[in-house]
Amino acid sequence: MVATTSEQVGNDHASPVDAATVWRWLDEVKDPEVPVISVVELGIARGVDVDASGLITIDVTPTYSGCPATVIIEELIAAAIDSRGHTVRINRVISPPWTTDWISKDGREKLHAYGIAPPDGEGEGKAALLGIDPKLKCPRCDSSNTERTSEFGSTACKALYRCRDCLEPFEYFKCI
Ligand SMILES: [Zn+2]
Roughly what angle, to the nearest 10 degrees, separates helices 69-82 and 19-26? Predict the structure, then answer.
Protein backbone atom coordinates (compact mmCIF):
# COMPACT_ATOMS: atom_id res chain seq x y z
CA MET A 1 0.00 0.00 0.00
CA VAL A 2 1.17 3.47 -0.80
CA ALA A 3 0.27 6.17 1.65
CA THR A 4 -1.82 8.79 -0.10
CA THR A 5 -2.17 11.33 2.63
CA SER A 6 0.19 12.60 5.22
CA GLU A 7 -1.97 11.07 7.96
CA GLN A 8 -1.19 7.61 6.65
CA VAL A 9 2.54 8.04 7.00
CA GLY A 10 1.99 6.90 10.52
CA ASN A 11 4.40 8.77 12.72
CA ASP A 12 4.84 12.22 14.12
CA HIS A 13 7.39 13.34 11.61
CA ALA A 14 6.42 16.60 9.96
CA SER A 15 3.14 16.84 11.86
CA PRO A 16 2.77 20.13 13.70
CA VAL A 17 3.86 20.24 17.29
CA ASP A 18 2.83 22.71 19.95
CA ALA A 19 5.20 24.67 22.16
CA ALA A 20 4.15 22.75 25.30
CA THR A 21 5.36 19.51 23.70
CA VAL A 22 8.66 21.13 22.78
CA TRP A 23 9.08 22.28 26.39
CA ARG A 24 8.60 18.66 27.53
CA TRP A 25 11.32 17.51 25.11
CA LEU A 26 13.63 20.27 26.38
CA ASP A 27 13.05 19.15 29.96
CA GLU A 28 14.62 15.81 28.95
CA VAL A 29 17.82 17.57 27.87
CA LYS A 30 20.17 17.48 30.85
CA ASP A 31 23.09 19.76 31.54
CA PRO A 32 26.20 17.82 30.41
CA GLU A 33 28.10 18.96 33.51
CA VAL A 34 25.33 18.28 36.01
CA PRO A 35 23.23 15.51 34.46
CA VAL A 36 20.49 15.67 37.10
CA ILE A 37 19.24 19.08 36.02
CA SER A 38 17.59 19.97 32.71
CA VAL A 39 18.22 22.96 30.50
CA VAL A 40 14.71 24.14 31.42
CA GLU A 41 15.36 23.90 35.18
CA LEU A 42 18.68 25.69 34.73
CA GLY A 43 16.91 28.52 32.93
CA ILE A 44 19.08 28.13 29.81
CA ALA A 45 16.16 27.34 27.49
CA ARG A 46 14.27 30.65 27.57
CA GLY A 47 11.70 30.49 24.82
CA VAL A 48 10.02 28.22 22.28
CA ASP A 49 8.39 29.37 19.06
CA VAL A 50 6.75 27.19 16.43
CA ASP A 51 5.99 29.05 13.22
CA ALA A 52 3.37 28.25 10.56
CA SER A 53 5.84 26.14 8.58
CA GLY A 54 6.62 24.01 11.65
CA LEU A 55 10.07 25.49 12.18
CA ILE A 56 10.90 25.39 15.88
CA THR A 57 13.01 28.21 17.30
CA ILE A 58 14.54 27.79 20.74
CA ASP A 59 15.86 30.82 22.60
CA VAL A 60 18.96 29.78 24.51
CA THR A 61 20.85 31.99 26.97
CA PRO A 62 24.36 30.76 27.88
CA THR A 63 25.03 30.52 31.61
CA TYR A 64 28.37 32.18 31.18
CA SER A 65 29.91 33.55 28.00
CA GLY A 66 33.17 31.67 28.52
CA CYS A 67 31.51 28.42 29.48
CA PRO A 68 32.71 25.70 27.09
CA ALA A 69 29.51 23.77 27.74
CA THR A 70 27.41 26.35 25.89
CA VAL A 71 28.04 24.95 22.42
CA ILE A 72 27.54 21.38 23.68
CA ILE A 73 24.23 22.35 25.31
CA GLU A 74 23.04 24.01 22.11
CA GLU A 75 23.92 20.87 20.16
CA LEU A 76 22.07 18.67 22.68
CA ILE A 77 18.98 20.88 22.42
CA ALA A 78 19.09 20.86 18.62
CA ALA A 79 19.54 17.08 18.60
CA ALA A 80 16.53 16.58 20.90
CA ILE A 81 14.30 18.38 18.38
CA ASP A 82 15.99 17.07 15.24
CA SER A 83 15.74 13.44 16.40
CA ARG A 84 11.95 13.83 16.46
CA GLY A 85 11.89 14.86 12.83
CA HIS A 86 11.47 18.59 13.29
CA THR A 87 13.51 21.45 11.95
CA VAL A 88 15.09 23.51 14.70
CA ARG A 89 16.86 26.81 14.92
CA ILE A 90 18.83 27.85 18.00
CA ASN A 91 18.56 31.55 18.78
CA ARG A 92 21.30 32.52 21.21
CA VAL A 93 20.02 35.32 23.45
CA ILE A 94 22.68 37.10 25.49
CA SER A 95 20.53 39.94 26.82
CA PRO A 96 19.31 39.96 29.49
CA PRO A 97 22.24 37.85 30.74
CA TRP A 98 21.56 34.57 32.52
CA THR A 99 21.70 34.68 36.28
CA THR A 100 21.51 31.90 38.83
CA ASP A 101 18.15 33.39 39.86
CA TRP A 102 16.75 31.69 36.74
CA ILE A 103 17.37 28.21 38.18
CA SER A 104 13.98 26.81 39.14
CA LYS A 105 13.05 25.65 42.65
CA ASP A 106 13.10 22.04 41.46
CA GLY A 107 16.47 22.67 39.89
CA ARG A 108 17.90 24.03 43.16
CA GLU A 109 16.66 20.98 45.06
CA LYS A 110 18.23 18.65 42.49
CA LEU A 111 21.56 20.50 42.68
CA HIS A 112 21.48 20.15 46.46
CA ALA A 113 20.69 16.43 46.23
CA TYR A 114 23.54 16.04 43.74
CA GLY A 115 25.99 17.59 46.21
CA ILE A 116 26.34 21.02 44.62
CA ALA A 117 25.47 23.98 46.81
CA PRO A 118 22.75 25.83 44.94
CA PRO A 119 23.34 29.55 44.52
CA ASP A 120 21.24 31.53 46.95
CA GLY A 121 20.47 34.38 44.59
CA GLU A 122 19.87 36.64 47.57
CA GLY A 123 23.06 38.65 47.68
CA GLU A 124 25.53 36.41 49.46
CA GLY A 125 26.25 34.52 46.26
CA LYS A 126 26.72 37.70 44.34
CA ALA A 127 29.14 38.85 47.04
CA ALA A 128 31.48 36.22 45.63
CA LEU A 129 31.70 38.39 42.54
CA LEU A 130 33.22 41.11 44.67
CA GLY A 131 35.77 38.73 46.17
CA ILE A 132 33.88 38.17 49.41
CA ASP A 133 33.48 34.53 50.33
CA PRO A 134 29.79 33.77 50.67
CA LYS A 135 28.79 31.72 53.71
CA LEU A 136 27.81 28.45 52.14
CA LYS A 137 26.09 25.56 53.79
CA CYS A 138 27.66 22.18 53.20
CA PRO A 139 25.25 20.23 50.97
CA ARG A 140 26.06 17.04 52.90
CA CYS A 141 25.83 18.01 56.58
CA ASP A 142 24.34 21.54 56.38
CA SER A 143 27.23 22.97 58.37
CA SER A 144 28.04 26.63 57.66
CA ASN A 145 31.65 26.00 58.63
CA THR A 146 32.95 25.92 55.05
CA GLU A 147 35.86 27.41 53.16
CA ARG A 148 36.65 28.10 49.54
CA THR A 149 39.57 26.00 48.38
CA SER A 150 39.68 26.98 44.71
CA GLU A 151 38.25 29.72 42.55
CA PHE A 152 37.57 27.22 39.80
CA GLY A 153 35.99 23.81 40.12
CA SER A 154 35.58 21.21 37.37
CA THR A 155 34.40 24.02 35.11
CA ALA A 156 34.95 27.75 35.18
CA CYS A 157 31.34 28.22 36.28
CA LYS A 158 31.88 26.51 39.63
CA ALA A 159 34.13 27.16 42.61
CA LEU A 160 35.43 24.45 44.94
CA TYR A 161 34.61 24.54 48.63
CA ARG A 162 35.35 22.27 51.55
CA CYS A 163 33.37 21.62 54.69
CA ARG A 164 35.49 22.00 57.83
CA ASP A 165 33.13 19.75 59.81
CA CYS A 166 32.63 16.70 57.59
CA LEU A 167 35.70 17.54 55.45
CA GLU A 168 33.80 16.88 52.24
CA PRO A 169 34.70 18.99 49.22
CA PHE A 170 31.82 20.39 47.21
CA GLU A 171 31.22 22.62 44.25
CA TYR A 172 29.35 25.87 44.13
CA PHE A 173 27.72 27.56 41.16
CA LYS A 174 29.13 31.03 41.08
CA CYS A 175 26.54 33.75 40.81
CA ILE A 176 27.09 35.85 37.72
ZN1 LIG B 1 29.79 19.01 55.76
Answer: 130
CA distances from 107 to 39, 101, 124, 150 (A): 10, 11, 19, 24
For residue 134, how far is its CA from the centre of ligand 1 (angstroms)?
Answer: 16
Cα gap 153→139, rounded to integer Å = 16
Domain annotation for the chain: domains and CATH numbers: 6-92 (3.30.300.130), 100-173 (no CATH)
Q: pLDDT tens digits for 141-173?
A: 988 888 888 776 666 677 888 899 999 888 887
Who's near 21: CB < 8 A, 6+ residues apart? none
Ligand 1 center–CA 55 separation, angstroms: 48
> Does this model's pTM top 0.90?
no
Task: Tell me phi and psi for residue 148, to 5 degrees.
Answer: -85, 130
pLDDT digits (tens, 9 = 90+) for 22-69: 999 999 999 887 888 999 999 999 999 999 999 999 999 987 665 667
